[in-house]
TrEMBL record:
Name used for this protein in its record: Formiminotransferase cyclodeaminase N-terminal like 1
Superkingdom per UniProt: Eukaryota
GO molecular function annotations of the record: folic acid binding; transferase activity
InterPro entries: Formiminotransferase_C_sf (IPR037070), Formiminotransferase_N (IPR012886), Formiminotransferase_N_sf (IPR037064), FormiminoTrfase_cat_dom_sf (IPR022384), FTCD (IPR051623)
Residues in Formiminotransferase N-terminal subdomain domain copies: 9-190
Pfam families the record matches: FTCD_N
Lineage: Eukaryota, Metazoa, Chordata, Craniata, Vertebrata
Species this protein is from: Seriola lalandi dorsalis
Amino acid sequence: MASSSLGRRLVACLLNVSEARRKELVETVAKAALYNTEGKRKGTTVLNIFNDHDYNRSVITIVASIDSIREAVLSACEKACGLIDMCAHTGVHPCMGAVDLIPIYPLGEEVRVEDCAKEARAVAQGLTERVQGTSAFLFGWADSPLQRGLAQRRKEMGWFKKTPDLQAIRPDLGPQPQRRFGLTGVGASPYVMNCNVTINTQDIAMGHSIATTIRESTPGGLPGVQVLALPHEGAVEIACNVESVKGSTPSHLTAGEPWPSFSIDGQLYCHAPASLITARVAELAGRKGVGTKGMALVGFTPRECRGLAELALSEGIAEFWKEQRRIRM
């Protein structure tokens, strides 16, 4: 990622909350990251709010310096926990918490792995202390010393089950999970992009087949790509978490476009481009006579996130999600 003095200490948190149908509520949560009793929180911006009605899930992209991110995120989480009751939640996307996921990603080259791990652990601790009854599990760099990935930790916690057994869960922080707040995943890792491709069918079995084929864990799958197939707006969405992997473009995939890359602590990372994922899904669906309806990025690529954050902060735009369409046109 290109260097600038403003961007060297930046981190992003793609805060996942279990509400999308009350958009004003989600905006209230986003604004809690930006403002305190003294006014606007310095050096913090919300770049994007992605709402999905069927999933009843929103992703709020918060960016600040590594020194400021903790308070911004905790303030948003406190507000979300006060407004969202998991006892009343419905939606087709798996989830376990009112605040379901708090991932912290480094954007700037002066942010170290340990910085992100430390802040993630502090956020998890702060959440369980400030909001009595909340519980958390750790993943990625924050999960010391094992550093288990998000997908593994979610599987261990029962996140993928339709009705998780909260009484069987042993959180890393906080009490036994309560129905109102559920369980929150908190961690740090290289940037994870979300890329969703919709196929024009209601055949969920076909969706599962495609998801299995492109998933990283399948021989010949795409490195770093974790996949779910979910019913969505009368079709099927192939919902991909695109994790950044160490090194440059995998050797067996060099025939296409180079994978976007960046460095953290001197280590090179890259991620599968959205165009490759879309093409692979389209190819697999096409073999079954089904087309695709479109692709959606939840937020940004790592490079876009850094660039837009620098723009927003240099111009003092806190509520950037309201401006980004005008600025990017």
